[in-house]
Amino acid sequence: MSLDLHWDTRELHTAQPFGIARWTHSVYPRTFVTLSHEGLTGQGEAAPNAFYGETRGTVEAVLPLLAGALTDPWDWDGLNAALSARMPHDHPSVKCALEMAALDWCARSAGVPVWRLLGLSPLALPESSYTVSLAPLDEMRTQARDAVARGHGVLKVKLGTPDDEAILEALREEAPDVALRVDANAAWTRAQAKRLLGVLEAARVELVEQPLASGDLEGHAELRVRAGVPIVADESLHHVSDVVALARAFDGVNLKLAKLGGPLQALRALRLARAHGLQVMMGCMIESSLGIAAAAHLAGLCDWADLDGALLLADDPYAGLQWTAGQLARPQSAGWGVTLR
Ligand SMILES: [Mg+2]
């Protein structure tokens, strides 16, 4: 029986405007791919990010060109080879959506969660961080206070402003007992980062994500030697083939399915990172519980989880993930374990 693919873009909205060093947005168009075959369906999500060259427009333009690469949901290597042959290194969120749909279909056909289909050990997920996004200082204080009141034990603070020291001090005062992580989103200069190292240590920051520009591996390598906290690559990691070079400049890497081209590509990056002595974070974009669920299937293999993308949404179209504050339970039902509301 032939295989049918269709897709549909929905605008998802964050409950509050979500701000990082580069931008602030409230509307996030996400394209959902459905694979129908032999009476079963599989689903995937494309969460494009402009930093990696993708928009709603590129996703909708490229999906018809890449959809033909998915001819057999069980042939995962064949799918990856066909996608890479058509668009090497580009359009990772589209590739992610197609790979997700294939894996969901296979796992539903086998009646198991995807993590079991892939033979991954059933390890507990690390507690996910909850993001305090960039906003006027009073609003950042409120975000942190509300998150702590809801039971979150790990906060990730977006920085990359001239006032970072004041923000960090204020949030530490607001949330003295949480694990605090910092994400500068590539916005610091080398000099700024060096000046802030003492502030980060005084605030007992657990790790710093992407302090410097994505191409500045030398700067990160220098900073890492001086820093008392792990330095984790996010924007510097675009593709599985970047991992080995990053091991010289960073302590860890943030893996996101949408930028790496899907769950199996993220798993390759994860194993490569481990082989080169890197620590590993499972991260996400602002995306629905479908995309978050896919990341959750791999998160038990990671040191850190940052999977709050769907918690920030006002209109998550998928349901089924079990959260207790920042602690996500490993999905137990077939496929990704979520359903359209
Ligand atoms: Mg980041």
From TrEMBL:
Cofactor names: Mg(2+)
Residues of the Mandelate racemase/muconate lactonizing enzyme C-terminal domain: 137-230
Metal-binding recorded as keyword: yes
Pfam families for this protein: MR_MLE_C (PF13378), MR_MLE_N (PF02746)
Cofactor binding description: Binds 1 Mg(2+) ion per subunit.
Keyword entries, A-Z: Isomerase, Magnesium, Metal-binding
InterPro entries in the cross-refs: Dipeptide_epimerase, Enolase-like_C_sf, Enolase-like_N, Enolase_C-like, Mandel_Rmase/mucon_lact_enz_CS, Mandelate_racemase_C, Mandelate_racemase_N_dom
Protein family membership: Belongs to the mandelate racemase/muconate lactonizing enzyme family.
Protein name: Dipeptide epimerase
Native species: Deinococcus hohokamensis
